[in-house]
Write a structure and sequence with these properties.
With 547 residues, the chain is of the alpha+beta class. The chain has 22 helices and 13 strands.
Length: 547
């Protein structure tokens, strides 16, 4: 620091030679006294700087406008006589606006002005805004004559639900369902008699239910539509001045009985064992996983699809059910299980062997260990092409394989296994556990503890069964020993042996039969690959398309 101070002092006190001093004075004079060419006249000073000595200002551009012939609200803008752009001015109806300077409300006509480089852009923008004004005026006229429309009420109700979702009072998945159902309402409530809320009656609501049924909508979905419409009418009843309704016409509307109502089938314990044995005959053990964990572990379809390898504790033989993959429109959403209630289940012998076999099979195809955050349910095509199985296709695949099994059994002269949906397996699970099983030889498998059954299925204990022991002392600590005991007695299938026997039978086939099976499998894989690429093209294809 001292050295820097000395250098600075030497620089300041450095003396100039006489010749250098003279040159410096000349330079200073040139800066102060301008030459004759640079010196402005008195008139120039007065014109440019003025008496106050301000800096010279650039002259303002002269702007002129010329209307475009044949086009209203559009004019050409010129700067200094040269064309600059096209300007569009939209005048809106007069309205009361608060004037801060005058401190009172005044009537003004708001304007919106925008410039464009081409005439086509200006015309397009003007037409869009004029159409909006025409629609707004028409809606105002219609509202004065007929009142509010149902779609307007549905949108207002949806906006109210959006606010609740932002505050955390409503789940986002439920909000998506409301949005989809609102779009479905537009398909029907768009005619002369079904547009306005005042004119809609119970009969028209029933006609809407029939309309949706004719389009192939399930009865369960129509029941949800009815609940949505009831909520919209309740929402409108709170503001009768706006919507002008006196009663809720939806509750009295009847949903027609479907022509072919589905009736669930209950498999007996022997049929469950036969179905598990049949599932072991396939090269892909995914169907085996779905059968075992829906019918003997009570998992829902979304829980089957949402189970991850990290949720399974092979040492303690326990599984934590904490993910639920559901389909919303065409997308998958992973959330908490139903009622946002996680639970723990214990693995009995068959389910434990199934998971072991399933994991070994996946690792053999992948050539590595499965990732902890990967989903358990993955068909072979998913593993090969490295994409997650879509939940909406699981039920379709289940139905196809079930039909294939019964077709083969029919050829062999065996009794057909009654068809059941994936969710029917959960009903079978609960029914057997609460009722017990009576074997053909007369021996009985005792029912499991109802407390463990309800906790294992993720259900709430009925109020009639609730007491101090079930709500306080008998806490849920994840033990399902009685459920495990029941299925260990009921299921006698050896999964590993059945799988190995099926693989051995495949090796004993003739070369022709092997090639035929391989060709059929390759055909299925190519078909699945085309469907996959159609809906989800790879990144390379997207990049080439963008270029």
């Amino acid at each position: 620091m001292e050295k820097k101070k000395e250098e600075q002092a030497d620089f300041i006190l450095e003396e100039l030679t006489p010749s250098e001093e003279e040159l410096r004075e000349l330079d200073m004079l040139e800066e102060i006294i301008p030459t004759e060419e640079e010196a402005p006249t008195v008139e120039g000073i007065s014109a440019q700087e003025g008496a106050s000595g301000e800096k010279p200002r650039k002259p303002k551009a002269v702007i002129t406008y010329t209307p475009v012939s044949g086009e209203k609200l559009i004019r050409m803008k010129f700067k200094n006589g040269q064309f600059h752009s096209y300007e569009v001015t939209i005048n809106y109806p007069r309205r009361e606006v608060y004037d801060t300077k005058r401190q009172k409300y005044v009537s003004r006509s708001p304007q919106e002005r925008k410039t464009f480089s081409t005439l086509d852009e200006a015309i397009l923008w003007r037409n869009e805004h004029q159409n909006e004004q025409v629609e707004a005026r028409q809606k105002k006229i219609d509202y004065k004559k007929q009142g509010a429309t149902l779609i307007a009420a549905a949108e207002a109700y949806y906006a109210d639900m959006e606010q609740k979702a932002e505050k955390g009072k409503l789940s986002l998945s439920y909000l998506d369902q409301l949005r989809i159902q609102t779009d479905h309402f537009r398909r029907f409530f768009n005619g002369n008699r079904t547009t306005y809320v005042k004119t809609i009656d119970t009969k028209q609501i029933e006609e809407y239910f029939q309309f949706e049924e004719d389009r192939g909508i399930s009865r369960a979905s129509i029941v949800k539509y009815k609940s949505h419409l009831k909520a919209i009418w309740t929402f409108m009843m709170k503001d009768r001045a706006t919507y002008g309704i006196k009663e809720n016409v939806v509750p009295a509307a009847q949903i027609t009985t479907p022509k072919s109502e589905y009736k669930a089938n209950v498999l007996n314990y022997k049929q469950i064992g036969e179905l598990i044995t049949e599932a072991c005959q396939f090269d892909d053990p995914t169907f085996l996983y779905i059968v075992v964990f829906s019918m003997t572990q009570g998992l829902r379809r979304g829980e089957l699809c949402g189970l991850m390898w990290q949720d399974i504790d092979f040492e303690k033989r326990r599984v934590k059910i904490c993910h639920n993959r559901v389909q919303i429109v065409t997308a998958d959403t992973t959330k908490l299980p139903k009622r946002e209630k996680t639970r723990i289940i214990e693995l009995h012998r068959v389910s434990y062997e199934t998971l072991q076999l399933y994991k070994e099979w996946q690792e053999r195809i992948l050539g590595r260990e499965v990732e902890p955050e990967a989903f358990v349910l993955q068909w072979e095509i998913n593993l090969i092409q490295n994409y997650v199985c879509h939940t909406g296709k699981v039920s379709r695949k289940w139905k196809e394989i079930y039909a294939k099994i019964n077709k083969a059994r029919e050829k062999e002269g065996k009794e057909l296994i009654p068809y059941g949906r994936i969710h029917d397996g959960r009903h079978i699970y609960v029914t057997f556990l609460l009722q017990g099983i009576k074997r053909d030889d007369g021996t009985i498998i005792k029912p499991a503890s109802y407390f463990q059954v309800y906790q294992s299925a993720g259900h709430e204990i009925p109020k009639a069964m609730q007491n101090v022991s079930t709500t306080v002392y008998n806490e849920d600590v994840g033990d399902r020993w009685d459920v495990t005991r029941f299925w260990d007695e009921a299921l006698t299938v050896d999964v590993h042996k059945a799988w190995e026997d099926a693989q051995r039978a495949y090796e004993e086939l003739s070369p022709f039969e092997r090639d035929l099976r391989a060709a059929r499998k390759q055909k299925r894989m190519e078909k699945a690959k085309k469907e996959r690429l159609k809906s989800h093209p790879p990144e390379e294809t997207l990049q080439i398309y963008e270029e």
